[in-house]
Amino acid sequence: DSLLEVRNLKKYYPVNKGFFNKTQAYIKAVDDISFSVRKGETFGLVGESGCGKSTTGRSLLRLIEPTAGEVWFEGRDITKLSMEDMRRQRREMQIVFQDPFSSLDPRNTVQRILEEPMIVHGAGNAKERRAAVERLADVVGLAKAHLQRYPHQFSGGQRQRIGIARALALQPKLIIADEPVSALDVSIQSQVINLMQDLQKEFGLTYIFIAHDLSVVKHICDRVAVMYLGRIVEITGKNKLYDQP
Ligand code: ADP
Ligand code: ADP
Q1: Measured from the CA of 120, which atom of ligand 2 is nearest?
Q2: Which residue ranges does the record assign to the ABC transporter domain (predicted)?
């Protein structure tokens, strides 16, 4: 039972070969990949830096417009949606970035940051939003008193909790986690991963978990797709992962 089905996805970035050379060249960042993600699973996307993981993750949400291919989510191809419908669609599909600092507005309190997606999507009135924000803080283990603080007043691990809370604000079905723990100390990494696993159980979430390092994903992923130079070279199930040294 699949939640997401990616068919022949491509993303070619045009590259500038210089002013006089008019031949168009492309970087084939994502070069014809297909995979499907089952409801409730954690699907890993791994591979060395530059192999196309982030481009894939962003293309699925159309934060980057794919060059070709189809992305089926719950029975419809969302690459065909208008941008307005796509923005609405993103209630169901959220992304968590490696460094939440870069995506958390430094001028806003955490309260405001967590409220923002609900305001943008017209979810609830002010009172309901406040209650929802307190629930979110609770769910990710953030003290209520901290809601009045600003992003720079938190450690990396706490900021990632804020990033995760914001991604959860609209009760999505799918979360694309793009190297969510890569910038964190190893001891903090496992805390964030444990949190993600708890949230998955509690809310029945489906994850796409992007990492350059197999060691991070192999404990939490049900299946892992290995990317190399824009292609998926292998999709491996959990049992196989544990066999590897
Ligand atoms: P990964 O997430 O696996 O590190 P990326 O998806 O970031 O890989 O990048 C894949 C390839 O696309 C790399 O060669 C990268 O240099 C190139 N690339 C990424 N973003 C752009 C862009 N905006 N313009 C041109 N090339 C890009
Ligand atoms: P802005 O908020 O000014 O649009 P951002 O860099 O914060 O710029 O976001 C760029 C795009 O990514 C926007 O369309 C925004 O809605 C979307 N976006 C930001 N954060 C998330 C998230 N956690 N999940 C899904 N989409 C997001």
Answers
A1: 16
A2: 4-245
Give yes or no for residue 103 CB within 6 A of ligand 2.
yes
**Confidence band, pLDDT 50/70/90 cuts, at residue 215:** confident
Taking only the tens place, the pLDDT of each residue in 109-167 is 999 999 999 999 999 999 999 999 999 999 999 999 999 999 999 999 999 999 999 99
Distance 54 CA to ligand 2 centre (A): 15
Residues facing 45 on adjacent strands: 210, 225
Q: How far is CA 130 from the centre of its chain?
A: 25
Provide the token pair at 17. Answer: 């070969």
Verify whether ligand 2 is closer than 6 Å to residue 173 (CB atom). Answer: no
Q: How far is the CA of 116 from the centre of ligand 2 (A)?
A: 11
Q: Is 90 in the pocket of ligand 2 (CB under 6 A)?
A: yes
34's tokens = 């297909």
Q: Distance between alpha carbon 91 and the CA centroid of its chain, in Å? A: 13
For residue 32, give the H/E element and its range.
strand 25-38
Q: 76-80, 97-101, 193-197: which range is least confident on average?
A: 97-101
Residue 165 and residue 115 in contact, taking contact as beta carbons nearer than 8 Å: no
- Give the ipTM of the model, two decimals please: 0.76
Summarised one tens digit per residue, pLDDT across range 52-62 is 999 999 999 99
pTM: 0.89
Backbone phi and psi for residue 65, each to the nearest 5 degrees, phi listed first: -85, 120
Q: Please give the number of the atom of ligand 2 that sits closest to the Cα of 167.
A: 23
Q: Cα(121)–Cα(85) distance, rounded to whole angstroms? A: 12
The two structure tokens encoding residue 115: 């409220």
Q: How far does residue 218's CA lie from ligand 2's centre (Å)?
A: 28
